[in-house]
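Our consortium's second objective concerns turning raw sequence data into structural hypotheses that experimental partners can test. To show how far this objective has progressed, the report includes one record in full. It was chosen at random from the queue rather than selected for favorable results. The single chain below, 356 residues long, was entered without modification.
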Amino acid sequence: MVSAGLLTAHCAFGQTLSTPPDNASDVESYASRAGLNHPYFDWLANDVPYIISPEERIAFVQLTNDEDRDLFIEQFWERRNPEPDSQDNMFKSEHYRRIVYSNEHFSTERTPGWKTDRGRIYIQWGQPEEIESNKPDAGGRVETWRYRYLEGVGENIVAGFADPDLTGDYRLEFLPELEKDRFKPDGVHEMSTSACAECIQALVTPQAEAGSAFTPRFKELETAIVGRADLDDVRFSYHFDSIPATPFTTLVPMSIEIPSFEFQSRRGDPDEAIQLHLFLRITDSMGHVVDTYEDGVSNVAGISEVEASERPFIFQKSVTLRPGTYVVAIALANPELRTIGTSYSELAVSAMSNQN
């Protein structure tokens, strides 16, 4: 593997750029010198500085139009999807959850949480199994994180942080020596200054877009949504939150509440709860489909509990969206009765102010 410190590329914008180490400030400087426009500068500098590989970084800054940049970002997450055939990319969801958590728990007066040392380690490695903290004294505060096992890193990993001035700004004091750039995209191996074109070809491929076509399981629900059918034979309510993670991306938790009686069988075994069919589609202000999700929804309680309970069943899902205006369309079907309920709601995702 070529060392990140030695890797350079003569890129399309006429400069020779060294690939920086995994440091947020260095990646931001790199993106600025590359002349990236917003919001793609924000994505490279704020969303993925700790997880993007040197090869991907070089390829991204050489792209010359937004269509290719959008395709690159889509494929960036798909390369990391632990279940490529799944509608949910758990890696992407967890990544943004960690950014939000870091901002909520590690921010200081001057620095957003994701840019702090604790934020960086948390985003890269997740929640430690053990955290030890001393009581504040003349020597400040010390915090030690212990991980029993990290895939690709090792066992019994310890990270130490110190806050000598009691400002809340913990700095990384010690960390085991790790192999850099553990993630390497498929099809990209060694790379030198003359490999930019090959890197882009390997990382931005048209066939990936063609292979990502969505084939619905519940076609009658998609038809209802596309036709904007207004149906109320299956009842439910919904609630959306908006949690900015970065200037480029907002985490949107969605909750769909379904009355318990909707799971009761009317025609089959009265002691067996039925499974409902859920179809959810998000479109942007231009009508383009941004995300589609469908699945069977079951109330895990027994039928006797369902009958006795007045509490609704709550289905939860989080999506990541860019700032903008969207329409969230939801269809819920009872396959036993062949009934459907639909709803259409406008969702405004505000832009996050630029961070320090």
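The partners drew two points from this record. The first strand starts at residue 8 and ends at 10. The chain has ten helices and 14 strands. Both points have been shared with the crystallography group to help prioritize constructs.
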